[in-house]
Design brief:
Chain lengths: 316, 289
C-alpha cells in the first residue's frame, strides 16, 4: 500500500481547522486559550466566534477549572496550550475538576514531544501520554498528520467525556487520505504484513511507514498500525496483528515509560505474549535542536524502527 | 444595625433553629465516622443555612447538573462537607437519613464532595483546594452565554486563599466582568497548622480583593441578621460589571464551646463524651436523623 505525501502541514493547524468547523456546526463548542492563540492556531475561531472564545492569560490551572465549569452549563470546552502546560503543570486540576468530576472537557495540546525543537527540554514534554492515560475515564488521542488531527478534533466534540488530544509544532508529511474514516478507539492497519507488527502514534507513524518500505527491500513484511487512540487502546487489533506476525515494535515521540509502548505491552503480556521492542525516548529529557536532529539523536528515526524490527524478529 | 422587623425577625429565628439542627448533624456525622472536619463546618453552619433556606433560588426536587434557571453554589473548601451535606439533605436534595452514611464505604457522602457517585446537589468534586472559583467562573460564563440571569455562589476557606489558582481566577473574573458571581470566604483566621497569620499571612484581605477588581463586603458570619443583610447587599451589587466578594468573619467551631478559639478541631472527631457535651449545647429543633 502506498501513502503519497499530499502536503507538508503542521498537525496543530489541523486542530485549528477542525475547531473552526466545530464553531460553524456546534453552538455549544467554546474555546479557551492561555496566551498561545497563534501557536495553537485558534485565532480563526477567536475571530469568527469571539463570544465563545475565552482568553484566560498565562494561568493554565485556572483555565482547566473554568473549562470544567463551562460544561456545567452544557458547553463543550476546548482548552489550548502547549502539551507541557496542558498536563504536567495542571495535573491536579485535571484530575479533580475534570477527570474525577467526569466533565466533558477537551484538553488540546500542541508542541508535544521532541519536535517542538529549539525551545528545549523545559517545553518538550515526553511524559504527557503517560500522565493522561493514568486518569480513569480519560480518552487519549495522538493523531499522525494534519488530516487526522482535524478529524480527531471533530470526533472528540461528539464524544461525551474528558479527552486529551496531543499534536505538534513542525510541518510534517500529510498522508492520511481525507476519506479514511476516523473512529476513536479503532486502530488503523495502514500496511498489512506478515513478519513484524509496527505500532506507532503521532509523527512516528510516518517514520513507521518509511521503515516498512525499507524492510520490504530486505524481504521483511512489516504490518504498520496507526494507533491514534492510546486510551481506550484497540486491544483486539494488537492481539490480532501479533497473532499474524509474532512480534511487535512500538514507536512514539514520548518517554519509553508510560506511553504507547507500555499500553501495548499490557495487552501483549496478558493476551498474546510475543517479543516487543520499544522505539521511544530512553528515560531522559530532550534538548535544543532542530526536530530532525532531535529525532535522530534520541533514536526515533526510521532507521531506528528498522533496527528494532530486526531485533524483534530475531527474538521470535 | 437597625432592629429587624417582625417578619424579618421570624425569618432570622427560623434560620437560627435550622442552623442549630445543622450543627447537631455536623457533630453527629463526624462522630459516627470518627473522622471529618467539624471546626470549619460549624463555623459555616449559619451561612450555608441562610444560603440554602433563604438566599438561593433553587428547586431541590428538580435538580439537574446543568442548573439552568437556578442559582448555583460551589463549595471550594470541600473538607467542610458535613455542613453542606446537612443543608443539602434538609433542604430536600436527598434523604436526611443518608447523613448516617457519611464517609462510609459504598456511600454517596464521600469524605470530600464529589459528582462521582451522583449525589444530587453537587456539581463538582472539591477537596484539593483552590479550584472552586475557577469552576464557578466557568459556570457563570455559561450562564451568560445561555441568557440565564441566575447567580453563581462560592464558598472558600481563608487558608485556601494561599493557593495561587485563586488569584488567577480572581483576575479572570474581574477581567470578564463577571457580575453574576458572588464569592464568600470563611474568614476564621485558622488553618490546620495554626493561625493563618502564623502559617502564611493573607495581608489586607479586603484591599487585596478590591485591588483585583472585585466589589468587597465584610460581614459577621455567625450573626444571622448581619449575614442576611450582607447577602442582600451582595445580590444588589450584582449586574454592575464586577464580581462580588463577601468576607465573612467567623469562628471555627462556632456553637460548641470547647471547639472554639482554636484550630484544634479543624479535622478531628469528637469521642462519645465530647459528642454528648456538644449536643447539649445544640437544641434539637428539626429532629435528628
Amino acid at each position: 500500500m502506498n501513502y503519497p505525501v499530499l502536503d507538508q502541514k503542521d498537525t496543530r493547524s489541523g486542530f485549528g481547522a477542525g475547531l473552526l468547523e466545530l464553531g460553524d456546526t456546534n453552538p455549544d463548542v467554546v474555546a479557551l486559550c492561555a496566551d498561545l492563540t497563534g501557536s495553537l492556531k485558534m485565532d480563526a475561531f477567536q475571530k469568527k466566534y469571539p463570544e465563545r472564545f475565552f482568553q484566560v492569560g498565562i494561568a493554565e490551572a485556572n483555565m482547566m477549572g473554568v473549562a470544567a465549569g463551562l460544561t456545567i452549563g452544557g458547553k463543550i470546552p476546548f482548552t489550548g496550550t502547549f502539551a507541557n502546560f496542558s498536563t504536567g503543570r495542571v495535573y491536579d486540576q485535571i484530575r479533580q475538576s475534570i477527570a474525577y468530576a467526569g466533565k466533558n472537557v477537551k484538553i488540546c495540546a500542541s508542541h508535544a514531544g521532541l519536535t517542538l525543537g529549539e525551545d528545549g527540554a523545559t517545553h518538550q514534554i515526553l511524559e504527557d501520554i503517560g500522565l493522561m492515560r493514568m486518569l480513569p475515564g480519560m480518552t487519549v488521542i495522538v493523531p499522525c498528520d494534519y488530516n487526522q488531527t482535524k478529524q480527531a478534533t471533530k470526533a472528540i466534540a461528539a464524544h461525551d467525556g474528558p479527552c486529551y488530544l496531543r499534536f505538534g509544532r513542525p510541518k510534517w508529511p500529510v498522508f492520511i487520505p481525507n476519506d479514511l474514516p476516523f473512529e476513536i478507539g479503532k486502530a488503523q492497519v495502514l500496511v498489512p504484513g506478515t513478519d513484524v507488527t509496527v505500532i506507532a502514534c503521532g509523527h512516528l507513524v510516518w517514520h513507521a511507514l518509511q521503515a516498512a518500505e525499507e524492510l520490504v527491500g530486505s524481504g521483511i513484511s512489516a504490518e504498520v498500525i496507526n494507533m491514534h487512540t492510546i486510551k481506550p487502546l484497540d486491544a483486539d487489533a494488537v492481539v490480532a496483528s501479533a497473532g499474524r506476525t509474532g512480534c511487535v515494535v512500538t514507536c512514539e515521540e514520548h518517554n519509553r515509560h508510560g506511553g504507547l509502548g507500555d499500553a501495548v505491552a499490557q495487552v501483549l503480556t496478558s493476551r498474546k505474549p510475543v517479543p516487543q521492542e520499544f522505539v521511544a525516548v530512553n528515560d531522559t529529557f530532550g534538548e535544543s535542536g532542530t526536530p530532525d536532529e532531535l529525532l535522530r539523536k534520541y533514536g526515533l528515526y526510521p532507521s531506528d524502527i528498522v533496527n528494532a524490527a530486526r531485533r524483534a524478529l530475531s527474538r521470535k | 444595625m437597625p432592629a429587624a422587623t417582625a417578619s424579618a425577625q421570624d425569618t432570622i429565628t427560623s434560620l437560627q433553629r435550622i442552623a442549630s439542627q445543622v450543627r447537631r448533624d455536623i457533630v453527629r456525622q463526624v462522630h459516627a465516622a470518627q473522622s471529618g472536619h467539624p471546626g470549619g463546618s460549624l463555623g459555616c453552619a449559619d451561612f450555608l443555612t441562610a444560603l440554602y433556606f433563604h438566599i438561593l433560588r433553587h428547586d431541590p426536587k428538580a435538580w439537574t447538573m446543568d442548573g439552568r434557571g437556578q442559582d448555583l453554589f460551589f463549595l471550594s473548601n470541600g473538607h467542610i462537607s458535613p455542613v453542606w451535606y446537612s443543608v443539602l439533605a434538609r433542604s430536600g436534595y436527598f434523604p436526611i437519613s443518608e447523613l448516617a452514611t457519611f464517609r462510609r464505604i459504598n456511600g454517596r457522602l464521600q469524605g470530600h464532595p464529589t459528582t462521582h457517585e451522583g449525589l444530587p446537589g453537587v456539581r463538582m468534586a472539591s477537596g484539593s483546594l483552590g479550584q472552586g472559583l475557577s469552576v464557578a467562573i466557568g459556570a457563570a460564563l455559561a450562564k451568560k452565554l445561555n441568557g440565564d440571569d441566575r447567580l453563581v455562589y462560592t464558598l472558600h476557606g481563608d487558608g485556601e486563599l494561599q493557593e495561587g489558582q485563586i488569584w488567577e481566577a480572581a483576575m479572570l473574573a474581574a477581567a470578564k466582568k463577571l457580575d453574576n458571581l458572588i464569592s464568600t470566604v470563611d474568614w476564621n483566621g485558622r488553618q490546620i497548622d495554626g493561625d493563618v497569620d502564623d502559617v502564611l499571612p493573607l495581608g489586607d484581605l479586603p484591599a487585596k480583593w478590591k485591588a483585583f477588581g472585585w466589589e468587597v463586603l465584610e460581614a459577621e458570619g455567625n450573626d444571622m441578621q448581619a449575614l442576611l443583610e450582607a447577602m442582600e447587599e451582595a445580590k444588589a451589587r450584582t449586574g454592575r460589571g464586577k464580581p462580588v466578594m463577601v468576607l465573612m468573619r467567623t469562628e471555627m467551631g462556632q456553637g460548641v464551646d470547647f471547639m472554639m478559639n482554636s484550630h484544634a478541631w479543624h479535622g478531628i472527631a469528637p469521642n462519645d463524651a465530647q459528642l454528648a457535651g456538644a449536643l447539649a449545647q445544640l437544641p434539637e429543633t428539626l429532629g435528628d436523623y
